[in-house]
Sequence to fold (346 residues):
Amino acid sequence: MRVRGYAAQSADSELAAWEFERRTPGEKDVVIRIEYCGICHSDIHFARNEWGGTTYPAVPGHEIIGRVVEVGSGVTRYHKDDRVGVGCFVESCRTCGSCQEDLENYCENGVRGTYGGVEDDGVTPTRGGYSSHIVVDEHFVLNIPDALDPAGAAPLLCAGITTYSPLRHVGVSPGDRVAVMGLGGLGHMGVKLAASFGAEVTVLSRSPSKQADAERLGAHDFVLTNEEGAMNALVGRFDIVLDTISAEHDINGPVMSLKRDGTFIMVGASPTPHALAGGPLIMGRRSVMGSLVGGIAETQEMLDHCGKHRIVSDVEMITPDQINEAYERAVQGDVKYRFVIDCTQF
Ligand code: NAP
Ligand code: ZN
Ligand code: ZN
Fold:
């Protein structure tokens, strides 16, 4: 199946129009005409080979919303014209302990990324949502609640589930003090979701221009982390710190800002490592954990929660020819708060 999209041809080339083949739809496959795709910072790390291992041409995009245009004979959950979503992965082994527990994202045999993975034939790379169509097994297709604006719902498929899952895992409940570090795509969803669970949310940011937005998004407090003494004033304050920052930064101060037994959740995936001292962990029995998106069942639960609470991402719509400019702006932290591509133009 021939489709149109945008690809990076090398780590230092800009993304440009490119046509490629999708696999022939099988019995359990859903063919989706993509309408919207968010730009996640992971797309940028991947297109620029910042984590290593990218093969080219590379088609990023894992915050996908579209309409079903065709279903295989064995598909039971979806029909033509349904509005659906696809997130960060499109296959897993389905038999390992993690898959059995609906945690396909942690598949012990390697989850297949929506991009950067390999198809069943063992050689064809998977390609993401900066494209006109995608072919996905129905198990990895999500139902999008009618109540949600489809463009605003696209970022839920990565930024939404990546912040929802760890906040649920640690059991954030009303009155908990949650700090969200970095007010970008993940960060602004973290604020909305933590607030929807009844938490008292503080944004930790280096951008004064985002203060007013933080409050509008549901935060109770805003701290400029690059101001002298700002972190010292927060020692022992939070139950949870959710770190969404995309680059190397100090994490000892943020860990110190936790109460005794507090948890620091790392979801930001800086290509360079952070230095963490023992002291901040030892003093106060604090914990550090990481989290990778979320399983399919939990992603559907998150979408339904967002449908019920009318939660979507704040988006800036762009056309495919604006993707490179959007990458530059995202790297500068200049996006309010997610770029979403109008994929009907592919
Ligand atoms: P984003 O929209 O670019 O937001 C990142 C934010 O971090 C920026 O808006 C900025 O916030 C802050 N920031 C950026 N550079 C910084 C620096 N050098 N020092 C301090 N703060 C900085 O990115 P995103 O799409 O939310 O993704 C964030 C990270 O999470 C990326 O590394 C991405 O790969 C990763 N990620 C992980 C998962 C997972 O499953 N764990 C899923 C998706 C994405 P302020 O302006 O407020 O300071
Ligand atoms: Zn992502
Ligand atoms: Zn598995």
